[in-house]
Amino acid sequence: MAARQLKSFTREEVEKHNTEGDLWIIIDARVYDLTRFKDLHPGGKSVLLEGDVAGQDATEMFYSLHRNEVLHKPQYQRLMIGQLEGEESTIYDRIVGRISTIPYGEPTWLSKGYHSPYYTEGHRKFHKAVRTFFDEFVFEDAQAREEDGKRPSQNVIDKMAEKNMHAMRMGPGKHLEGRILMDGIVKPEEFDYFHELIITQEFVRCGNRGYGDGLLGGKVIGLPPVLNFGNPDLQARVVPDILAGKKFICLAISEAHAGSDVFGLQTNAKKTEDGKHWIVNGTKKWITNGTFADYFTVGCKTEDGFTVMLIERGEGIETKPIKTSYSPTAGTAFITFDNVKVPIENTLGPEGGGIFVILSNFNHERWVMCCASVRGQRAIVEECMKWITQRKAFGGKPLHQLAVIRSKMASMIARAESLQAWLENVTYQMNHMNYQIQADKLAGQIAFLKSYSTQCAQDTARDAVQIFGGRGVTKTGMGKFIEHYHRTIPFDAILGGTEDVLADLGVRQAMRHMPKNVRL
Ligand code: HEM
């Protein structure tokens, strides 16, 4: 609430203003004058004139029908004319940087009284700064952009660049050298996968799937091939601007003809006679950040097989938005390459060796998706915990008094807890393995974790809709995060390999490691 001097009223004084021409109410010890607003009230006038509302304390009633954020909107804040004498607001509100005290609203490492073998004091300090940053600078923009479908605001991207977040989101590595991370809270050489997990998980708390991707998801998957396989000149030319949030990159692999099937791709690159350029023709589909990308990391069919190259926006390239189940904020594109001339120096990795270039990043990419999926489920648990406490039904009892609701909560909580524990174990392993060993030991683990996590997410989305009822399928109001989650979550089960493909990969990896001659 804005810090302004409020008048004090007694309950008796408020009670006198209980008519259509003079209508006050109390919500959470604050006094609101609804005399003029009543005709504009989205829930209608009549409800505000009821005997237990007009001139009364309508706190219970208000919170069973509205999210707290309604009262934060400037147009409604103006309705507040004072507060009750000697009484304070007590409603649990969203406060920048706060750790939730809702049971299971945070992973155990952040919950009071619990311990963790994985996180140091340094991680905790880092977490505090990252949470405060997202709450302060990103949350509101996420809500607004998901609503209007525009790209994440450049000032958010710039602020993230000031903290070197775009670089940190690429994980530990050489690209962090010489950078001041989060105002120096962590040194580049100390930055590990738990720091990265923290950023990804805090990011997800903004609760908007399209925005999450719009906030440079394309870079997280499109830049690694440049960092790992680009020649030094190319890197020097493109990487600094991308990590500064001034230029944008995306990964352009999937096509209308082929999604997970990289060998089915049809976009082709042919060398010019002088061997100095590629000429690229074809189309790409479902490319995150494609509508606004300056650079495209593109997989092409070439004479020797499959080759990856960096293509810069220019002549012969057209990007068109695709309508998806989330907002256009993600910049999901259909891309056409029409005789696009690409310098041979933009080739990433060996000619014909593109599959290795793409595969080498899959584990990290999928692990990032796991971090996001697991945190997303916890956010839904928190929403449901609040709702089952405040929502009264069947004779004025809160929903949590119904065994069937508790049973759904039990499953949701168990999923969120077990997935976070598994994720932290995998993250710990990553911190202790180089990239080659990770590929050998963790490809299967990460594939299973992602496959299982996105299955759980869909179960949790379904349970949450059951708990919220009609509100769980309504885009505004109490269930808006549930509706959004339920609508957008199936996407997570597809990107980075579908659930079935990944589960199968995990088993195949396990079979590769079976000792010979085992018998029952
Ligand atoms: C400061 C006071 C109030 C403000 C600013 C306010 C504002 C709003 C807004 C913005 C909505 C639409 C929410 C949405 O997007 O779903 C709404 C809906 C509604 N409001 Fe209020 N309201 C106030 C007080 C009350 C009170 C005291 C009642 C008491 C019964 C009430 C009953 C309703 C109902 C029944 C709905 C429809 C809810 C639904 O469709 O789920 N409002 N109100």
From TrEMBL:
Keywords: FAD, Flavoprotein, Heme, Iron, Metal-binding, Oxidoreductase
A cellular component annotation (GO) from this entry: cytoplasm
Keyword Flavoprotein tagged: yes
Cited SMART domains: Cyt-b5
Domain Cytochrome b5 heme-binding: 6-100
SUPFAM superfamilies named in the record: Acyl-CoA dehydrogenase C-terminal domain-like, Acyl-CoA dehydrogenase NM domain-like, Cytochrome b5-like heme/steroid binding domain
Superkingdom as given in the UniProt entry: Eukaryota
Keyword Phosphoprotein recorded: no
GO MF terms held by the record: acyl-CoA dehydrogenase activity; flavin adenine dinucleotide binding; heme binding; metal ion binding
Named cofactor requirement(s): FAD
InterPro entries cross-referenced by the UniProt entry: Acyl-CoA_dehydrogenase, Acyl-CoA_DH_CS, Acyl-CoA_Oxase/DH_mid-dom, Acyl-CoA_Oxase/DH_mid-dom_sf, AcylCo_DH-like_C, AcylCo_DH/oxidase_C, AcylCoA_DH/ox_N, AcylCoA_DH/ox_N_sf
GO annotation (BP), single: fatty acid beta-oxidation using acyl-CoA dehydrogenase
Family, similarity comment: Belongs to the acyl-CoA dehydrogenase family.
Protein name per the record: Cytochrome b5 heme-binding domain-containing protein
Organism annotation: Piloderma croceum (strain F 1598)
